[in-house]
Specification:
The complex is a heterodimer of chains A (114) and B (115).
Chain A (H helix, E strand, L loop, with lengths): L3 E4 L2 E4 L5 E7 L5 E8 L3 E10 L2 E4 L6 E3 L9 E3 L8 E8 L9 E2 L3 E5 L1
Parallel strand pairs in A: 2-11
Antiparallel strand pairs in A: 1-3, 3-8, 4-5, 4-9, 5-6, 7-8, 9-10, 9-11
Chain B lengths: L2 E3 L4 E5 L4 E3 L2 E3 L5 E8 L6 E7 L6 E3 L2 E6 L4 E6 L8 E9 L7 E2 L3 E6 L1
Parallel strand pairs in B: 2-12
Antiparallel strand pairs in B: 1-4, 3-9, 5-6, 5-10, 7-8, 8-9, 10-11, 10-12
The chains are: A mainly beta (114), B mainly beta (115).
C-alpha cells in the first residue's frame, strides 16, 4: 500500500545512546518532514526536506540530524539521546508545500529515553 | 513568522450536539494553505481538508463544514450532530506559498463526544 512507513513503532533508549528513526515513502513526494508530538504542544517541526540532497531546520532541530540521499527515504538521527527527546515522532510527505491532498503522515514512532 | 492558534484546549459535548472548533492563523503572506487534521485515539493523523488563501468559499462534507474568513484570519471547523466516533484531537495547520515545506500546526483541540 502506498504511503509513509515509519520504523520502529516503539523504542526505548538509554540516555546517551544514538539511534535512527526510519521514514520511507513510495509516492514520489519531494517534500518530507519530521515532527515531534508532546502533550499540549501540538506537532513541532524538527527538520524538513524539499528533495534529495536538500534539508533544512525546523522549530526544534537541536539534538537531531537528517540527510536525504534518495527521494524515498528521510531518516532522523538522534545523536545522543536525552530524556527531553521522549516523544512521539511523525514523518510526513507531500508532492508540494500546499499539496491538494495535504501531507501524508506515517503511523508514528513512540520513543522513550530513560 | 507564521502562527496557528487553537484557543480551545478541550471541548466536551453530548452526542448529536453541534460543535465548532476554532482556528486563528497569522501570516503576512498572501498565498498560503490551511489544513485540518484529525488524530483519533489510535494516534494516526488523518487529513480532513485543505484550503488555499484565494478560495474563501465555505465547504461542507457530510456532517463536517469549514468556514474560512480572511477578514478575521480564521478557519473554523463545525461538526453537526456529533457522534462518539468524532472524539479525537483536531489540529489546524498552515503553510505559506513560498515555503520550503514547513507546515506549522496549532496545539490542537481535544474533542470528547459523550453518548
Amino acid at each position: 500500500n502506498a504511503g509513509v512507513t515509519q520504523t520502529p513503532k516503539f523504542q526505548v533508549l538509554k540516555t546517551g545512546q544514538s539511534m535512527t528513526l526510519q521514514c520511507a515513502q513510495d509516492m514520489n513526494h519531494e517534500y518530507m518532514s519530521w515532527y515531534r508530538q508532546d502533550p499540549g504542544m501540538g506537532l513541532r517541526l524538527i527538520h524538513y526536506s524539499v528533495g534529495a540532497g536538500i534539508t533544512d531546520q525546523g522549530e526544534v532541530p537541536n539534538g537531531y540530524n537528517v540527510s536525504r540521499s534518495t527521494t524515498e527515504d528521510f531518516p532522523l538521527r538522534l545523536l545522543s539521546a536525552a530524556p527531553s527527546q521522549t516523544s512521539v515522532y511523525f514523518c510526513a510527505s507531500s508532492y508540494s508545500p500546499g499539496g491538494l491532498q495535504g501531507y501524508t503522515f506515517g503511523s508514528g514512532t513512540r520513543l522513550t529515553v530513560v | 513568522a507564521q502562527k496557528v492558534t487553537q484557543a480551545q484546549t478541550e471541548i466536551s459535548v453530548v452526542e448529536k450536539e453541534d460543535v465548532t472548533l476554532d482556528c486563528v492563523y497569522e501570516t503576512r503572506d498572501t498565498t498560503y494553505y490551511l489544513f485540518w487534521y484529525k488524530q483519533p485515539p489510535s494516534g494516526e493523523l488523518v487529513f480532513l481538508i485543505r484550503r488555499n488563501s484565494f478560495d474563501e468559499q465555505n465547504e461542507i462534507s457530510g456532517r463536517y463544514s469549514w468556514n474560512f474568513q480572511k477578514s478575521t484570519s480564521s478557519f473554523n471547523f463545525t461538526i453537526t450532530a456529533s457522534q462518539v466516533v468524532d472524539s479525537a484531537v483536531y489540529f489546524c495547520a498552515l503553510i505559506v506559498g513560498g515555503s520550503q515545506g514547513n507546515l506549522i500546526f496549532g496545539k490542537g483541540t481535544k474533542l470528547s463526544v459523550k453518548p
